Amino acid sequence: MSNSAANKPTNDADREVLAASRQRTRRSFLVTAAAAAAAYGAYHLLDTGPEEEMQPVVLEDAYQTNAALSRTLFQNHVLAPTYPVSRAETLRINGIYGLKKDLVPESWRLQLVGMRNAASHPRFAPDVTAWEYRYQTPPANEDKGHDTKVDPKNDTATKMAPESNVGKAQQDENHTGRKPRGTEEAGQSDSTLAPKTPGLLLTLNDLKPLPRQELVTQFKCIEGWSQIVHWAGVRVRDFLDLYPPEPIDGKDPRFVYMETPDGDYYTGYDLNALRHPQALLVTEMMGAPLTQPHGAPLRLHMPTKYGYKQIKRIGLIAYTNDKPDDYWTKLGYDWYAGL
Ligand SMILES: Nc1nc2c(c(=O)[nH]1)N[C@H]1C(S)=C(S)[C@@H](COP(=O)(O)O)O[C@H]1N2
Ligand SMILES: [Mo]
Questions:
Q1: How far apart, in whole angstroms, are the C-alpha atoms of residue 311 and residue 320?
Q2: CATH topology of domain 75-331
Q3: Residue nearest atom 23 of ligand 1, based on CA coordinates
Q4: What is the pTM of this model?
Q5: How far does residue 309's CA lie from ligand 1's centre (Å)?
């Protein structure tokens, strides 16, 4: 994804182009608003051409309209089109924030914060932030000997050479992956958890009671490309029913915040938007378990939002009344990211 801050008009010609595109965009929003009101075929009209998909962030008015429209559409739960499996193709690998090191699969947990009666749940943990995700040591380091594969000769060498503690410090950082948190491009999330936050630590087995859902939908990146993909997993809506949020002032919290285990990628959503029937917590793509670069073991798919809201390798789901921070919003992109 390119940085749209660079899209600010610099001369009169640019400004004219921008003004024209702004008008086009407004018109397309009016058309889609009418379609939403009519409900029938609304998505088809929303499915605009590539120029309109790539709106620069300077179109603030349009984005506000987009946000309002996006909220309306989600309340109406307009469905995205689905396709036959035969049209699905392998998704390219795009964003890698929060995924740069392979996670040790057994060390994955889903931290869940803000759930109703969490303390009485068997998976309750008084401090979910204390959970230590582990990462695969790169093969180059494996030769240096650690944990399971200790070469006795190297072991002696380590004891006799204190300066090899430099390697040890490096290994500790790889081991937890939590020091330092959120150091990637957009910086640390303002919504990241404070130490000692209680919640649940779930495994994939804890999603087993939920009905399996398959979906073949179009995946759209704001960079202008799209692909049809075959997904499988569980509906976020079903997850929310099994692990419901604790009411705040007698009402459901308004937002949901998600984050990778290392906090380097993070996203925020309206709780209602996640109740869309096609919003999935994905465990499989194209008939096979998710691979690490595609977000194993759990990623989000929302066919009615751009790719940057579809977080890969979810480590945290938090229910909250504070509008959550969001990686690409921090870099100037629209928070709603509705198509
Ligand atoms: N953890 C994480 N999730 C992410 C990203 C990322 O950089 N890190 N990039 C987003 C963007 S912009 C896109 S287009 C999709 C790409 O998903 P893919 O690599 O499976 O194609 O992931 C989204 N989710
Ligand atoms: Mo993207």
A1: 18
A2: Sulfite Oxidase; Chain A, domain 2 (3.90.420)
A3: 308
A4: 0.72
A5: 8
